[in-house]
Specification:
Layout lengths: L2 E10 L4 E3 H5 L6 H8 L3 E3 L8 H16 L8 E5 L10 H9 L5 E5 L5 H14 L5 E8 L12 H4 L5 E10 L4 E9 L7 E2 L9 H6 L11 E2 L1 H22 L9 E4 L4 H10 L11 H4 L6 H11 L8 E8 L3 E8 L1
Parallel strand pairs: 4-5, 4-6, 11-12
Antiparallel strand pairs: 1-7, 2-3, 6-7, 8-13, 9-10, 12-13
Helix pairs in contact: 3-4, 8-9
This protein binds acetyl coenzyme *A.
């Protein structure tokens, strides 16, 4: 039986940097408010119409494939996670397959928002452990900027989100390192607490055409921020311990914790609860904002390229987001 391990990592960020001060030109906000509440100083927002979610995912994937040392023709499955796909359908996975010009492998789109990369990693892990595939591309890519309410009305959500893409090549290995376990959860009763409601089959073309209400905000992300925050800190801690316990590990065994970059205050709260030192936790939300499905692969790549992860390390990934969905992955590097 094979284990699965992350063999290559890469990310891509659009060049256009939007600072907190830039945002205060668009809406009633300030660098002080955003920094104090979220830790974010700047984010990337696409300003090139040609740059799509699948294209950013392609650039990140190309880098991950080079990093892995495998030939792209050896990729045998694609898992693409995004809440901001190029099209309503088909999914972005097939567009990635086309862009990469690889053979006709399966391409799966998943919609698990901030937990998307962890869900993708879990699926890849199972396919590899079952022997079905050897090299799976797991991608998270988001263009939030086009869908945000950038007026004062939308400020509590819009200041948080950024655009970006990250990718990992997950490969079969015969060593006992790699993904030790993954743990996934959902709680749909809170679906509308963090959601974009329209367009949808419950609000289909005829209704969209007839829509005249300019005050309708259901096309924009809605987030019950305080409620999400309170649930996030509980679920993050639960799912991290679920993973550690499953592998008979203690919090002291964590070499590096990378949480989904939702809000620096959430990461700091978890760090405190787990009594981890600064060197055991990696954050980069300050530079990129919340890039949803892309945030963990971007952070993992940065940490790895900065030599913060070495062979044998226990790396813990955890995410929480819209759905609600949450999950963790425990990796022995
Ligand atoms: N600039 C200035 N003032 C603002 C802004 C802003 N950008 N946004 C809101 N305010 C104001 C509000 O109007 C409110 O004013 P009032 O007291 O006069 O009514 C005040 O600031 C406080 O607003 P809150 O919404 O209560 O602020 P809060 O402290 O909750 O912070 C935040 C908001 C940062 C969004 C926080 O709730 C949070 O981080 N929540 C969790 C986010 C998260 O984890 N999301 C999950 C992942 S995302 C995904 O899955 C897609």
């Amino acid at each position: 039986m094979y284990n699965s391990a992350i063999k290559g990592l890469g990310f891509y960020l659009p060049e256009n940097i939007v600072t907190n001060n830039d945002l205060s030109g668009l809406m009633d906000t300030s660098d002080k408010w955003i920094t104090e509440r979220t830790g974010i100083k700047e984010r990337r927002w696409v300003n090139d119409d040609k740059l799509t979610t699948s294209l950013m995912g392609t650039y990140a994937s190309e880098r991950a494939i080079i990093d892995s040392g495998i030939d792209k023709k050896d990729i045998d499955f694609i898992i693409f996670s995004t809440l901001s796909p190029d099209y309503y359908f088909p999914g972005s996975g097939v567009l990635l397959q086309r862009n990469l010009e690889i053979k006709e492998v399966g391409a799966l789109d998943i919609r698990n928002q901030c937990s998307g990369f962890i869900y993708g990693l879990s699926i890849a892990d199972q396919y590899i452990k079952s022997g079905m595939y050897k090299n799976i591309l797991v991608v998270g890519s988001e263009i939030h900027s086009g869908g945000l309410d950038k007026s004062t009305r939308g400020r509590s959500v819009s200041v948080i989100f950024g655009d970006g893409a990250g990718a990992a090549v997950v490969s079969a290995t015969t060593s006992n390192s790699g993904i030790l376990s993954t743990h996934l959860h959902s709680e749909g009763k809170f679906a509308e607490e963090l959601a974009v409601i329209k367009p949808a089959t419950s609000f289909w073309i005829d209704k969209i055409k007839a829509e005249t209400n300019k005050d309708d905000t259901s096309y924009f992300p809605y987030m019950n921020g305080n409620f999400v925050f309170k649930n996030a800190v509980i679920r993050f801690e639960e799912v991290i311990f679920e993973g550690l316990n499953h592998s008979n590990l203690k919090k002291e065994d964590i070499s590096l914790l990378i949480t989904h970059q939702a809000n620096l205050r959430i990461s700091q709260y978890i760090q405190k609860r787990l009594n981890l030192s600064d060197s055991q936790v990696f954050n980069n939300i300050m530079k990129y904002g919340n890039t949803t499905a892309a945030s963990i692969p971007i952070a993992l790549t940065e940490a790895y390229k900065s030599n913060l992860i070495k062979k044998g390390d226990i790396v813990v990934l955890a995410a929480f987001g819209s759905g609600f969905t949450w999950g963790s992955a425990i990796i022995k590097w």
